[in-house]
Design goal:
Layout (H helix, E strand, L loop, with lengths): L4 H35 L1 H9 L4 H35 L11 H27 L2 H5 L3
Helix pairs in contact: 1-4, 3-4
Length: about 140
């Protein structure tokens, strides 16, 4: 236990800063999505008038975010796998890496992303196209 006491302290500090980083990133995603969705309200209204269904509009509004998450996942997962496997090799007891440890955080990231931008997306979809396009 004395050998791993320092790792336990480091883990608790890392968890604290990870939660702060997740909160700050959610605020950033919310601000960015609010700005971009407000820019696309007229586009969404035109798509609604032309007969687009709900799924098509959600796809248009969330495509950029999903692509960014996919790109960051393709970069982060191999780096995390490499660093984690090297770190685990320093311990006396060997632990094999489970792919679920990398899939679950990505799924959680997508869930947090969709939760964060979901409200603004829903508000943009539910807006009356006549009110948005009356100036055009």
């Amino acid at each position: 236990n004395k050998i791993y006491e320092e790792d336990k302290k480091f883990s608790s500090v890392l968890e604290f800063f990870a939660l702060i980083a997740i909160f700050i990133s959610c605020l950033g995603i919310f601000g960015l999505s609010s700005f971009l969705i407000n820019q696309k309200v007229k586009e969404v209204s035109i798509r609604k008038v032309l007969g687009a269904n709900l799924l098509q509009i959600v796809k248009v509004l969330t495509r950029e975010y999903i692509l960014l998450v996919a790109a960051s996942t393709l970069i982060a997962v191999p780096v995390a796998y490499f660093l984690t496997s090297n770190w685990l090799n320093t311990f006396l007891v060997r632990v094999s890496l489970n792919p679920l440890w990398f899939i679950a955080p990505v799924a959680g990231l997508v869930f947090i992303l969709m939760t964060t931008i979901g409200r603004k997306t829903w508000k943009a979809i539910m807006v009356n196209p006549a009110r948005t396009l009356k100036d055009e």
